[in-house]
Amino acid sequence: MEPNGNVLKEAVMINLMSNNMKPLKNVSIALLLVFFNTFCAQVAIEKETVDGNSTVLDFNNIPTNTKGIILPAIQGLPTGSPANGTFVFDRSDDKVKVYENNAWKALSDTGNGSAVINNSADETGNGVVIGSQAGSADGVLVLEAPDKAMILPKISSPHLNVKSPYPGMICYDTASKTFAVFDGTVWNYWK
Hints:
Layout (H helix, E strand, L loop, with lengths): L4 H35 L3 E3 L9 E5 L9 E2 L2 E2 L11 E5 L4 E6 L2 E4 L21 E3 L10 E3 L5 E2 L3 E2 L2 H4 L7 E5 L4 E5 L4 E4 L1
Parallel strand pairs: 1-2, 2-10, 4-5, 8-9, 11-12
Antiparallel strand pairs: 3-12, 5-6, 6-7, 12-13, 13-14
């Protein structure tokens, strides 16, 4: 039995349409990924999901966590106009500092930066930006989102539980409910 001419034409048309739709489908998937990464950029570290929709960077905050964020250790303060909210460990006076309201503010007493290992590599390119396609601030890691925040690593009593803290380490102390910074000698706490 020979195939009906109309059936054959319909089969050819369906095949042509499905072949023509593949590029459109691939373009649609690519556009969705770009949209998702641009407007919904969220990063979870050492965990599967981010807690909440308003988080740009989240850490595995299990009760036994003893890991914090190590700030960049620099000799002297950055020149130019750093972005408000920039954190550093200043090796010139061994203090953790934040750039706030267009001025540097010490978050710790004078500590001890002798354990800091200098990075002598040349800095090339821009840093990593999370939360936006391009950051407006210079930095190794820039978190820039109009409606998202970073959740600090949570540690209960870091002065007791972090056995070998590194100068410039920051975290949230769940026991005292404070922002904690290590200056190389002692922990400093901020409410």
